[in-house]
Amino acid sequence: MNHKESFLQYLQIEKRYSPHTVRSYLNDLDQFYSFLLSQGLPDDPAAVTSHDIRAWIVSMLDNNYATVSVHRKISCLRVFFRYLRKEGIVKSDPLEKVVLPKRKKNLPVFVEEEALNKLLDNYSFGDGFAGIRNRTIIEMLYLTGMRRSELIGLRNVDIDLSEGSVKVTGKRNKQRIIPLVKPFIQRLEEYIKVKDEIITTGNDGWFFITDKGNKLYDKYVYNTVNSYLAMVTTIEKKSPHILRHTFATHMLNRGADLNSIKELLGHANLSATQIYTHNTFEKLKKVYKQAHPRA
Fold first, then answer.
1. Is the domain of 77 the same as that of 123?
2. Which of the following is catalytic: 54, 72, 215, 241?
3. The domain that contains 233 carries what CATH number?
4. Is 226 in contact with 238 (CB distance < 8 Å)?
5. Is 148 a catalytic residue?
6. pLDDT value at 117 more than 90
7. What are the start-end ranges of the E strands in 33-174?
8. Does the annotation count 288 as an active-site position?
9. How far apart are CA 174 and CA 268, in angstroms?
10. 44-65 as b/e, with b when 16 or more CB fall inside 10 Å?
């Protein structure tokens, strides 16, 4: 087993990272190793220098990589070399003297309340299983703020209609309970009813399923959200994660405190949640400029 394989096994077994995160780390490491080979450098991590890593950063920026992508890839290397030092494979960390390019602060994009209300109140999703399921997917993401992977991973036992709550398993298997509003509970009852009518055999207990009764997959959820949001908004990104941003922004705009939003989103620390305050502040500035006579 080579260093890369043992590192990925460490992420899976000891760190308990999700399969999606492990794949991301693998892709980043493969890219870094490919860069080393393209420069005629050995693919031995013990031979890697800070100069090599700076050269990779320059190469990515020259190829128009966003700074956020560069930061993520270098973050992967930091974890990798930290692991190699712990295992005694390398003596020093080549990233210690590496300075990253300044990250541009991009505010989270979100859908306006009016647009989502238009979609959920006025649009007919259809009375069949597919339509009811697709609407339930949109509402689940918007009303709970859960991630796409968390939605796909929901099981029947995670939905407690009598308590009005859903148990979500997030990153590193950390679980949280999110309350459900009464109208949405009725929507879930409707979905469960039509789902039970088409399922004749077990499907391993997955809550959201395809028309054939199988577990949902990433691309299906993305395409579903993208196609419905396209009906009501012109924002460039129309991914499931946009509904997570929308959930947090709307909650904050309506007076929810930051700590509560942090718990609902499953963030490990408050700094990850604070980015949504910038959206609120931008909205306040806009209102101020429009309303104040001296603005």
1. no
2. 241
3. 1.10.443.10
4. yes
5. no
6. yes
7. 159-160, 165-169
8. no
9. 10
10. ebeebeeebbbebbeebeeeeb
Q: What percent of the chain has pLDDT over 70?
A: 91
178/265 Cα distance (integer angstroms): 9
Structure tokens at 287: 């209102």
Q: Are residues 25 and 124 in the same domain?
A: no
- Which residue of the set 171, 176, 215, 278 is catalytic? 171
**Residue 103, in any domain of the structure:** no
The answer to whether 241 is a known catalytic residue is: yes
For 179, the enclosing helix (H) or strand (E) is strand 175-179
Helical (H) or strand (E) element with 144: helix 129-144
Which residue do the tokens 């190829």 mark?
63
The span from the CA of 237 to the CA of 217, in Å, is 19
Residue ranges making up the domain that contains 183: 113-290
Residues 196-222: tens digit of each pLDDT: 988 766 668 999 999 988 999 999 999
Q: Is 278 a catalytic residue?
A: no
Whether 171 is catalytic: yes
Q: Is residue 100 part of a domain?
A: no
Residue tagged active-site, from 71, 78, 155, 267: 267
Against a cut of 0.70, is the pTM above it? no
Q: Which of 73, 148, 244, 262 is catalytic?
A: 244
